[in-house]
């Protein structure tokens, strides 16, 4: 496979789990193998070795165009791009057809989280423990109160609010970083939900509603990842905390994407494929 290799991945540490998956496949030889990863994985030798092992074992691997997943096309309201490799001993395999081809049909941030009750920084909703937003410093409160949905730090510069600029934005090398300390746009898809989506300064994670001066709540991040609204992540809050939940939610394969992958496998093996509608995955 003639990929241009990414030399920044010294010793392949970032993709080391693929080596473990390769060992499992070599030992078990399951009928179907699926991996989901960031797009960059395809540029590493470890990935090429993994695919070559599958082909040597007689697996049919889905083609590259099928592997490239843009989540809004599958009903997931975030700008998440993933590389989904599917392989089968039984014959050619692929993901189901995309749900949406037209951008105007993509689900939006407002459609996904707009029904939730308003919340301010540092608050926890009394009826839903997961609907909680982190406290903001005085400076970050001033930043978000002077930020429009879809805008960026250049708004402060234009308004003469240079004291709100982050240090990186004062350097020529950092002026291209537009997302930190900005608000999402309500009628677009969200940015990729990362493990730090609850931090205002970590990306375009400010709430689009200018009456809610805060970053996303944990519940909003989970909904944008297509977890059910009543999904139980924990028994006791003190056993988890914000950072652990942020990591669980941000690192997850969106459940709705997992469902589509599962439907592709069911169709491939000739099993009945249940109907599915776009939106947040059911329990």
TrEMBL record:
Keyword Methyltransferase annotated: yes
GO molecular function terms attached to this record: DNA (cytosine-5-)-methyltransferase activity; DNA binding
Entries under InterPro entries matching the protein: C5-Methyltransferase, C5_MeTfrase, C5_meth_CS, SAM-dependent_MTases_sf
Listed PROSITE patterns: C5_MTASE_2, SAM_MT_C5
Listed GO biological process terms: methylation; negative regulation of gene expression via chromosomal CpG island methylation
Keywords on record: Methyltransferase, S-adenosyl-L-methionine, Transferase
EC annotation from Swiss-Prot or TrEMBL: 2.1.1.37
Entry superkingdom: Archaea
The protein's name: DNA (cytosine-5-)-methyltransferase
Species annotation: Haloarcula amylolytica JCM 13557
């Amino acid at each position: 496979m003639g990929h241009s290799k990414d030399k920044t991945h010294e010793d392949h540490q970032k993709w080391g789990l693929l080596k473990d998956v390769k060992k499992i496949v070599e030992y078990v030889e399951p009928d179907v193998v699926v991996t989901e990863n960031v797009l960059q994985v395809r540029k590493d030798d470890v990935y090429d070795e993994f695919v070559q092992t599958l082909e040597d074992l007689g697996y049919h691997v889905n083609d590259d165009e099928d592997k490239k997943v843009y989540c809004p096309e599958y009903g997931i309201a975030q700008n998440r791009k993933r590389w989904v490799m599917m392989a089968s001993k039984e014959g050619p395999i692929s993901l189901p057809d995309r749900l949406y081809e037209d951008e105007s049909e993509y689900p939006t941030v407002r459609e996904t989280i707009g029904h939730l009750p308003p919340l301010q920084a540092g608050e926890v909703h009394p009826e839903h423990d997961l609907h909680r937003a982190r406290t903001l410093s005085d400076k970050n409160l001033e930043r978000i109160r002077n930020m429009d949905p879809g805008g960026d730090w250049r708004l402060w510069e234009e308004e003469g609010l240079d004291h709100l600029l982050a240090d990186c934005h004062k350097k020529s090398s950092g002026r291209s970083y537009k997302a930190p300390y900005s608000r999402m746009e309500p009628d677009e898809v969200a940015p990729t939900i990362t493990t730090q989506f609850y931090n205002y300064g970590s990306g375009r994670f400010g709430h689009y509603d200018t009456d809610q001066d805060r970053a996303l709540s944990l519940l909003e991040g989970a909904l944008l990842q297509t977890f059910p609204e009543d999904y139980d992540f924990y028994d006791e809050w003190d056993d988890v905390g914000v950072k652990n939940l942020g990591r669980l939610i941000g690192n997850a394969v969106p459940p709705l994407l997992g469902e589509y992958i599962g439907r592709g496998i069911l169709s491939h093996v000739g099993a009945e494929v249940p109907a599915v509608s776009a939106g947040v995955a059911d329990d």
